[in-house]
Structures are given as structure tokens and as C-alpha cells.
Amino acid sequence: MSSAATGAQMVSALIAAGFILALVAVVPLALVRPDIHRFKWEVEYKFWSPDCLENSVMSINGRFPGPTIRAKAGDIVHVDLTNKLSTEGVGTPWADGTASISQCPIRPGESFAYRFLVDKPGTYFYHGHYGMQRSAGLYGALIVDVAYGRSEPFHYDGEFDLLLSDWWHKSVHEQELGLSSVPFRWINEPNSLLINGRGQYGCSLAAGTCKFNGTEQCSPQVLRVFPQKTYRFRIASTTALSSLSVAVANHMMTVVEADGNYVEPFDVQNLYIYSGESYSVLIKTDQGPTKNYWISAGVIGRKPNTTQALTLLNYVSVHAAELPASAPPATPRWDDYDSMTAFAEKIRALPHYSYAPPPSRAHHGIALLNTQNKYNGQTKWAINNVSLSLPATPYLGSLRYNLKDAFDATPPPEGFPTDYDTMVPASNTECTVNNGIYLLKLHTTVDVVLQNANSLSANTSEVHPWYLHGHDFWVLGYGDGKFVKGVSDRKFNLKNPPLRNTVLIFPYGWTVLRFVADNPGAWAFHRHIEPHLHMGMGVVLAEGMDRVRGIPNEALECGLTANAKVLMDTKRG
User: Which residues pair with 272 in a beta bridge?
Assistant: First the structure.
């Protein structure tokens, strides 16, 4: 079992109370006594004004966003979490954090203790994974510094954490209802974009309606810097819908980390970041020190109807209230997919820093066609014409204890018809709804082709960020049109493909990833867009279930695994 795979499993063991961490690897690094970081969390709704208008948010200890977890590689984090939501579960109490896949939700009023060891440094975040709790504000940053005695392949003098999100005035419960309704009611574009939980609804610099000073909950956190220094910006996207471009006026950014993995440094003016992704960039404060500079985040990939999120890079010699005379950096054209693809293809692994190249060949291949469909009048997203509907009994328990009636034993299709025309709406728009899973042989190498297509409307195809739980994977390549085996794979990068946990497929295109199925368990692989996952856009992978031991009782107290005999069996491992 690789350390990367192990970490993804164990880290989620902590934050599963509705959280999924993009963290990987939990094997002791050295014979150094670890520090233990203890947290006591209570999750409940609070009134808050993220964009200067009061609304309800999901808070942790009365804070939004949730507290930042920070530790060194090799440390132990312990969180005691209590669910104080009166009507909702808070995700899952063990392992991966995906209700109905890994475990049962933590029920209202219940508590659970999470304890995990981290050893892979990087920029991560946690978030609720039950219903659409991420949209309601249940998320926070997780930063893992290098272990004692270790160093990183770059130098910096200071750092800032930027957690990006989008925000709606409509409640998540109303959003969920609309997505399942007939006729379909879309959630629409977000009302605001947030940086570290702070945004400005209806902000107009020209009209002077923006609130950049004061103590309001929506006032931006100004980033105060010294001239002629290098700063690390840790940037993570928890957005529920939006893809974003981030820019710092007059300053270039050097990308050095992606999803907790070091990459060959490259310079950009605009950082394209999609839901589920995280980056570190280095910024040199080498501009005129007598001015402040805008930092902007704006929507790409969808026709925007949301104003930019703004904050300030404040040189210490200038008052923080002094706004720049120039306009904020403009967001690139929302449908400039050539630039987005070029950015993605610049990301290459940095050798010699805990990086292993991918296996030269795969044992198994799966092709996943992404389509928008209809089912009994509802609008759905489907994979190979199957829309995912999760069962009442978590897969981890039903597979471990061979409960044959817990889900459909017929696996979903591993491909789609070769004559399917991805450039036009499907001739048959109806899909099926199912909860079958892909069973993978442990330690095999798997290639996954993510194939994009036209949606229900003509001349429409979207950017899809996909996130794989429990594993990192190598991104072998991107391409336009339909993937053709023996032709498209000539574009593969097998020399230094990046290790990621989130990957994009661009409109009408394909993306191929490769991973080793070396982490026993049941794992979600899904689009990291809240409404689309709610509409069925995902699959479930399982591997090495005979190796899974010691599932806590709390993880199985729902569905068929609530049976007393099963719970007794878990006590024996």
C-alpha cells in the first residue's frame, strides 16, 4: 500500500464528520516524537454576513469559515466534533467522509473523536460531504508544513492562506429541492464570491458601495507585505459551482505546488483554479512600495453573473485604507478554454521530491462519458448513461460484511458506444438511476478516460472538475473531441505527469488519469460541483475490501449494517 493512498484514507478518518480532506499519506517519517494538536468543534447554524447581507451559515465553534488546522508532517491531529444541527447529519464518522459510501452520518446531538497522523506537506482544505453542506459554509483550511529537519524546493519570507468560495442567498435546502423538482429549478449563478469567507454583494468601485474598511464580517482581510520579499500564497477552492481566475495587479505568480505535490515552477499572470483544487504560488513584492494593489478572483468556465471578489495587497508604507487608483485585474474571458488548457498542460511534476513516475502500462481501463439527461422528468447528470443514487447502507459496511441486498450487484458500464457523437445532444436523453459500483483488483494500475460531451442544450458543453477520494493520480494528458485508443494516447506524458487529486475535462474534450488501486476501501470519484453531484454525477470504486478491518460501530449504525450481529462482529475486527 502506498503512503499516498494510506493518507487519503486515514486523514479523512478525522474530518469525516461531513468533511473530506484532500490530504494524503500517513506513515511515520522519522523517530521524532510527534506534536499532538487538539481541537474541540461544535457544528451548528449561525447568522452571518459573508457578503454584507445577513444569512445563515454552517459554523464551527461559531466561526465561518471553520478553524484552520495547521500541523507539521509527522504530527497528530485530534478533533472532538459534536453535531449541533437539529435536523441534519454531518457526514461520516470514519475514514473518508462520504455519507452512504464510507459510513453513516453523525446524527444530531452526537459526537465523535477523530485522530490522524499527517506526513505529506501541502495546502489542503476540509469540507462537509453530506448533502450540499459545503454550499452552506462548512469548510476550512488544512495546512501541513514540512517535517522537522526537512526543506522545500523553494524559499519564501512569509505566507498567506486564501480560501476561495461562492455564496448564495438562497438556502441549500431550497437549492436541493429545486434540483430535484419537475420542472427543474436551477440554483443560478452565485450572488457573491468570497475570499476567506468575505465578499461584497453588489460591490461597485465606481459607485463607492464597497466596504473595504471597518469591522464588518464582509470586510476583506488585507494582506500586509514588506517590499522586496517573497511571499507564499496558499490558494484553495471550496467553490460549489464556480471556476475562478485569481490575479494580483502588477505582480507575477510562480506556481510551485498543486494539490499537495511539488511542480516545476512556472510564471503566470492568472491562476486558473477549479473546485477541489489547491495551489501554492510565490509572489515577489518588487513593485512600487508607495501603492497598494488589487487582488481579484473572477468566474471563468461559465458566463458570469457575479462580481469579482476583491482584497488588497498592502505595502507596509501605505495606509491599508488607501485604494489603488487603477482598476482591479480583469478576469480573462470566461470561455477562453485555450488559455485554461495551456495552463493545465504547464503543470509538470518536480522530480526528486517524493515523486514516483507512473507505471508504464495499465492493467485495466474505464471510460466515463459525462452527459446531461432526463429521468422521470427530472434533470440528471449521468456517467455512461447511469445517474448515481446512493444507497441507505454505506458501501464500506455492505461490502465488508457481504450484504448482497444493500446495493445493485451489477456493476455499471465500463465504457460507452464507440459511435456516440459527443458534439451534439444525445438522440435518447433518458438515463437510468442506479447504485452499482466498480470493483477493482487490489494493486492493479487503472486508466480512466474522462470523456466530455454536449449537454441537453445544443452547442453546450461544460468544464468538469473531477475529484478522486482515497488516491492521488497521474494526469497523463488532455485532448479535444473524442478519445480514440491507439491515437489519442500518443499524447500521453509518461515522463513527468503531475500527481493530483482533482482534474479537469474541458468542453467537448477528454482527460486521462492513471492510478494504482492500492488503498483498500470504497471510494467516491465524482464531479466536485455540489449541484451536479446532487444530480448524480459520480461513480464509486472499491478495492481490497477483504483487507478492511476495525470499522467503528458508529460508522455502521444505519441501513442494513445497523443489525446488532454486524455491530458485534466489528468489535472483533
Answer: 245
**Strands 499-500, 521-527: parallel, antiparallel or unpaired by DSSP?**
unpaired
Q: Which three cell numbers stand for residue 253?
A: 505568480
- Single out the residue of 521, 545, 561 nearest to residue 392, CA to CA: 561
* pLDDT top residue among 396 and 229: 229
Q: Across all residues in the chain, what is the average pLDDT?
A: 88
Among 240, 242, 236, CA closest to 258:
236
Closest by alpha carbon to 504, among 563, 553, 564, 462? 462
Integer-rounded Cα Rg, in Å, for the chain is 23
Q: Cβ neighbours of residue 387 under 8 Å, at least 6 residues apart?
A: 373, 375, 380, 381, 431, 432, 433, 434, 535, 536, 537
DSSP for 147-209 reads PTT---SS--SEEEEEEEEEE-SS-HHHHHHHHHSSS-----S-SEEEETTB--TT--TTTT-
Backbone angles phi, psi at 109, to 5 degrees: 85, -10
Q: 286 and 512 in contact (C-beta within 8 Å)?
A: no
- The strand ranges marked E within 220-363 are 223-225, 230-237, 243-248, 253-258, 261-268, 271-273, 278-284, 292-300, 309-315
- In the sheet that holds 499-500, the strands lie side by side as 432-434, 386-388, 378-383, 364-375, 445-451, 509-516, 473-480, 499-500
Neighbours of 86 (CB within 10 A): 9
pLDDT in tens, 305-341: 999 999 999 999 999 889 998 999 999 999 999 999 9
Cα–Cα distance measured from residue 200 to residue 235, given in angstroms and rounded to the nearest whole number:
19
CA–CA separation, 554 vs 552, rounded Å? 5
Cβ 149 vs Cβ 305: under 8 Å: no
- Check whether 15 has a pLDDT greater than 80: no
pLDDT digits (tens, 9 = 90+) for 433-448: 999 999 999 999 999 9
Peptide bond into 50 cis (omega under 30): no
Burial of 155 (0-12, 13-18, 19+ CB in 10 A): exposed
247 CB-near residues (< 8 Å, 6+ apart): 253, 269, 270, 271, 295, 296, 329, 331
Q: Report the C-alpha gap between 455 and 452 in whole angstroms.
A: 9
Cis geometry, peptide bond prior to residue 183 (ω within 30 degrees of 0): yes
DSSP state of 328: P
Q: Give the residue among 440, 449, 350, 499 at the shortest CA–CA distance from 3.
A: 499
Q: How many CA atoms lie within 13 A of 445 on its CB side?
A: 10
Could you tell me which residues are beta bridge partners of residue 163?
Answer: 236
CA dihedral 5, 9, 12, 18 (to 10 degrees): 120
Within 10 A of 546 (CB to CB), how many other CB atoms are there?
9
* Type of residue numbered 247: A
The C-alpha cell at 406 is: 444493500
pLDDT for 115 equals 75
Cα within 13 Å of Cα(226), Cβ side: 7
pLDDT tens digit sequence for 60-111: 999 999 999 999 998 998 888 888 876 556 543 344 556 777 777 777 888 7
H or E element, residue 440: strand 438-440
Residue 305 — left, alpha, or beta (φ > 0 → left; ψ -120 to 50 → alpha)? alpha
